[in-house]
Amino acid sequence: IVVSIIVARTMQRRCYTTIAMSVLCCYCVGGITGFANNAATIRSTRLMATSSSTARHIENVAIIGGGLAGLSAAYHLIDIATETRPNEQLHITIYDKTQVGCGGASSVAGGLMHPFSPRGKLIHHGQSALEQSKVLVQAAAKHRPTCVLRDHLYRVALSDKNVVQLQDTASKYPELATWISKEDLHDNVGIDCLGGLKLSNGCQVIHVPTYLEGLLEEIKKKAKRLTTGSSVNWEVIKPNDHQALSQKLKKYDSVILSAGSGLLHNNFIEEDSLPVQLVRGQSIEIGLPTDEKKSLIKNDAVLCGKYISPLPSLAQDNDPQANARQRYVIGATHEFKSTPLTSTEVTEELRSRTYELAPHLWDEGVVDKITNGVRMQSNRGAFGRMPIIGQYNSDAAESELNHEHMWLFTGLSSRGLIYHAVFGRWLANAVLHDNETLLQNEFKEFDWWRRKQKK
């Protein structure tokens, strides 16, 4: 009897063990993929849970700077609020030194939207960035259809090494990049080089001032649909009147600093608090007389280290030929010194880098003006030059602006068009939920800039 009891109990334990192991094996074989796929969701749920008890209700948001970064943040604040809290009011005020599209580096940007580096490599988050930027361009184009100048652009090869690099890009990303032979580029675009890429399927040429106008109109329209009483306002301020601006900001739940180089120029943030450099870019706007249009086969945008890109025609009452004149922007210089290059120096530099590609522009074109913009360029990190986003704790002794809940969205550098939408959405979600850790769900290393802050 004793032996029978012992054997029975042993078999019972083995049975339980076998069942447990079978369940575990089934979970491991059939469920480990699901576990991996749901890891981000689990992490997101935990982050939301840890912040839900302490998160503030965000109803009033101020945005300092109404360029690409600022308007992207505003658009996505409204868009996410519409999705997650459609019955609650949201008020946004955008503060800028001038009217939309009229000032800052965004207003003189080249407008070439694509996700590739000069060597043809896909930039970090490049494809998702392009998709999100397409959404905003389509939204703006509903109000300003002329903001899209071309639905493609070209990156040309000027060396044998560059040929290999760009052909590799075409093989890896055929949905975005098509290799064009030097003969076809010459015949169809009027460019003499070693061949190049035609970038399309979302890669496009944008007239940024017109785009910003259309985007602001769409933002205001979306705010009216959100709920009764929600609003988006644009207010022109004197950026040097810090006391008046600080008084205005007291009524806001959160403040987003997105004024680019203006954040440093106007002492909104400490000069040495971020791993950035100020870079001046000067470009030349050239008009081609009407009788010289025949010298161009096609009016397209070309990237070659520098860029040549079409501009809208100038409508002038005193110039009946203005609407027919083809206009281009050739840019841009890359200046780190505080003293800008002279107009002669700018012309010499840009001519030397682009003359062989478009001699007719330099020989027959008439310079309309030289544009000038200063952008905040982030230092290079593990993923290249990435935007700076996240909460910002100012030092009252150094900063001219003080608010308990400030956020940064800056450092887009020359990748403003490609990065402004996706990073703007990530930041807006964090601001609206008063939870910075949500940024980590999208970009694990979002706070890279804190680890690389200037000493």
What do these coordinates show?
The chain is α/β, with parallel strands linked by helices and 455 residues long. The protein contains 14 helices and 17 strands. Strands 6-7-5-12-13-14-11-15 form an eight-stranded mixed β-sheet, sandwiched between helices. A six-stranded mixed β-sheet has the order 9-2-1-10-17-16. α3 packs parallel to α7, α3 (68-84) crosses α12 and α4 (126-141) crosses α12 (416-432). Residues 1-52 and 293-297 have low confidence and may be disordered.
Widest β-sheet, arrangement of strands: 6-7-5-12-13-14-11-15
User: Mean pLDDT score, rounded?
Assistant: 84
Number of strands: 17
Helix content: 25-40%
List the helices and strands and how they pair.
Elements: H1 2-37, H2 39-52, E1 60-64, H3 68-84, E2 91-96, E3 112-113, H4 126-141, E4 148-150, E5 153-156, H5 160-172, E6 177-180, H6 182-189, E7 196-199, E8 204-206, H7 208-226, E9 231-236, H8 242-249, E10 254-257, H9 262-265, E11 276-288, E12 302-304, E13 306-311, E14 326-331, H10 343-354, H11 359-364, E15 366-378, E16 388-392, E17 406-410, H12 416-432, H13 438-442, H14 448-451
Helix pairs in contact: 3-7, 3-12, 4-7, 4-12
